């Protein structure tokens, strides 16, 4: 199962990237330069994950050479990390601690890239399909693959955190499938609701999302999350996670989370 997770992650990442490239070419060929520019702009936040990947390579004692830097510049750094995980899984049989560390790094980095890059692209392409070109096949396919890739990034992160718990084995495929369906449904309905609100009320959607973001940020601050030690970084972390909570719930605290999940869904709905 540990080999199947990075293999599926790499497949979805490749499919999502290919569909995004097709969408860029689609807008360029049709002369829709506004949507072309916005679609290209969605790529820029993804470099945060690439930069962090380079810093982690350096922290692990691997001096980044020209080839590695070029891969990250082309936003292929996570592809290399997935490839390294697959090679380590083939050699270690899925039980080595080094394999788990590599899997954890790439799961966290992929989740960060998905939230910073895939999510804005998903919102943009969904808006195009709903409000501009309902018959647009390429934007629709790109939005669908982005939704699936984002949901899988959340599932793979949950899978990694599950493996970190003492005495826990790999969850069965049925559990992974249920998690994927839950994440896909949750994200899909949230994105569609925001896009439809933006279609009807235009820029008022930023006011609604802003209120939700403030509520979630204050709520996270009230929980005294200790994942970040420094006060300034702790506030910044809560603000960033509060923005993520507009779309989905991510558990960042150890222990039972039923009460927190119930509060989140009560506010979200």
From TrEMBL:
One of its GO terms (cellular component) is plasma membrane. The chain crosses the membrane at residues 33-56, 137-162, 174-197, 203-222, 234-252. It is found in: Cell membrane; Membrane. It comes from the Eukaryota. Its main location: membrane. The keyword Transmembrane applies. Signal peptide: none annotated. It is a multi-pass membrane protein. Keywords: Cell membrane, Membrane, Transmembrane, Transmembrane helix. Pfam families: XK-related (PF09815). The keyword Transferase does not apply. PANTHER family: XK-RELATED PROTEIN (PTHR16024), XK-RELATED PROTEIN 5 (PTHR16024:SF15). Belongs to the XK family. This is XK-related protein. It comes from Rhodinocichla rosea. The gene is Xkr5.
């Amino acid at each position: 199962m540990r080999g199947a997770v990075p293999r599926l992650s790499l497949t979805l990442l490749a499919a999502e990237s290919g569909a995004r490239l097709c969408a860029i070419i689609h807008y360029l060929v049709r002369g829709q330069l506004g949507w072309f520019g916005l679609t290209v702009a969605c790529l820029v936040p993804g470099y945060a994950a690439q930069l962090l990947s380079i810093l982690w390579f350096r922290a692990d004692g691997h001096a980044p050479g020209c080839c590695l830097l070029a891969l990250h510049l082309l936003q292929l750094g996570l592809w290399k990390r997935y490839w390294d995980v697959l090679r380590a899984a083939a050699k270690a049989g899925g039980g080595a601690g080094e394999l788990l560390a590599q899997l954890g790094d790439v799961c966290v980095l992929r989740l960060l890239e998905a939230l910073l890059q895939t999510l804005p692209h998903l919102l943009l392409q969904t808006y195009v399909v709903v409000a501009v070109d309902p018959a647009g096949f390429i934007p629709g396919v790109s939005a669908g693959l982005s939704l699936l890739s984002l949901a899988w990034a959340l599932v793979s992160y949950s899978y990694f955190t599950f493996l970190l718990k003492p005495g826990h084995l790999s969850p069965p495929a049925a559990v992974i499938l249920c998690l994927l369906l839950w994440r896909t449904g949750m994200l899909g309905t949230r994105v569609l609701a925001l896009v439809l609100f933006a279609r009807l009320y235009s820029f008022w959607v930023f006011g609604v999302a802003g209120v939700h973001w403030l509520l979630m940020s204050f709520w996270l601050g009230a929980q005294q999350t200790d994942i970040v030690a420094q006060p300034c970084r702790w506030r910044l972390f809560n603000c960033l996670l509060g923005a993520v909570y507009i779309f989905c719930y991510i558990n960042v605290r150890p222990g039972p989370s039923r009460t927190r999940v119930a509060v989140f869904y009560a506010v979200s709905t």
